[in-house]
Amino acid sequence: MAPPISSTRSEAERLIAFFVGGIRTATVIQMAPSMPYALKETEYPVLAAASWASALAMLVGIAVVGFARRRPPGPGWEVADVAVAVALLVIGTWTVPPEMRFGTWEGFQLAYAVCVACSLAGARRRGIWAALILALAAAEVFYVAPTVDGVRDLPIAVGNLLTLLALGPLTWISARVLLRMGDKADEARSYAARIAREGEERRARLAVHNGTALLRLLADGSADEATRARLRAQAEAEANRMRAYLSGTPRVDGGQTDLAALVSAVGSEHADMPLAVVADLAVGVRLEPGLATDLAAALRSLLLNVHQHAHAGQVVIHAEESVDGDGWAVTVHDDGVGFEAVPEAYGVGLRQVVVDQLSTRGVAAEITSMPGLGTTVVLRARYAARGGEES
Amino acid sequence: MHAARFAMVDDATALRASIADLLPAMRFTSVHCSVEELLGERPDADVVILDLHLANALQPGASQGVAAVSQVIAAGYRVCVYTQEERRFVLAACLAAGALGVVSKASSLEDAEASFLAVAEGDLVMPPAVTGLIEVLARRGALTILTPRQRDVLAGRARGLTYAELSRSLFLSESTLRGYWRDLTDMVSQYLQATSPGDIERALGLGPGDLIDWWPDRPAA
Q1: What residue numbers bound the domain in which A338 lies?
Q2: SS3 (DSSP) at B63
Q3: Please, what CATH class does the domain formed by B5-204 belong to?
Q4: Assessment of whether the complete model's pTM goes beyond 0.90
Q5: Residue of A227, A285, A316 to mutate, interface with B, max B Cβ within 10 Å
């Protein structure tokens, strides 16, 4: 899948620029038929021609700038656009006879003003936008005022004014909503990317943590040959897990796993420690493969911690299905030196391989320890559905 | 009350020669290479620290295993097994034969000494692997007379927790917990000695005859 090369915000801005360019092109087409007639009927043909040329230049110029930059032209262009529109409305009071000021077949100024009002969709600052809209409205009032000769003429004049005051804000608000949606989408995409990156970093740490601890133990020259042989066997198994991570192979060791068998198997990898496995009460508790893999990694991490730091005379792994049959628990206890069991003191193994990773599987980790009194870690899960099986 | 007197039966010459120096807080009255020698001399001792594997090239016919435990107990001694044996059914069979303690030779000298002295005071000492079997018997209804507190203590001991740790989680003093444990182990000891291997096999979910090779022929009285 090709990576996205632009933000949703920029796509929204491009859409607004295309909208502005489109509406200005449509206005040019709408104005074109009025030109010969307007020049013929006016008392100031040169001024009318200059007005028409100015309008054409602004319509096309801003459309081209928007298309080229792929975003609204910016505040400078917007102010200039409104200034020209206001000037054309004022000049129109000379060049366009009052009876010809409504309808693009004669006077283009009102349609042009609406087009400019809609072209302010890209204006970023609310105050500037409101001032520009009000300036346009005031100029329009000035332009149409001479056409009102009684109450009967008011609806047409007011209707034209309201068209500008309705379409202008409508397009501007729509553009704001579109840009906000773009921002939200970008934030969501950024959040998803951050979560994915953090997830990958966490998986990488999980993959290498136990291997790192084993390397440290292997580097310990004081270990006897029997211990080193066991460490080599564990390191080989850990290397296979790391290779599976690097190759992208799913970390699944097989089908469902018996909790007692899993605990016994992990315990047997650490026979160089004074370790007792008590798992009779966990026989028949089935774990789904992903949970079994993560639980095994967590137990290995705990036992490596004991190996490296605890100086324990006795280590016990106890596994059981709860008395009520609604879950299971694994307890890892050592009578070693202990530590201050506050989350800030947890290393990568305890914090990420044990607590964080298992919590994603619905397993809660409870760590109690005091200096001199050993350490107890209880991993506890409740069945999502009955049937003696972890789902 | 006099200090407990210990005798040791072990086929390792070096261990017999050094045990008194290794555990200076204990009073050893004699050491022996075989149960037969112990029973012939009948030393004045309260507790016999007994190795399980005693037959070797010099004494191929020496009594050993659960049979040796039964012989020493029959002679009136308390027995604490001190062994490298780790098969928990074998260790449980020693308790069924009447031993009051099972201590691993892999234990530190401090832990071993504490265990021997506890046995001398009448406590039942067993490793977590065997305590786990007792927990299974209690959970499956074979041991029905345990109180909730005794079950709590049993569960904690099966997880390897010390009395200090249990005291913090159960909000009871260590001496109270030791009392629960002593009452509990008395019942467990009586149960193991009075129950047939077949009943224990069923309670543990084992197959018929799985215990027969290790269990004492005749439970201790």
Answers
A1: 255-391
A2: coil
A3: alpha beta
A4: no
A5: A316
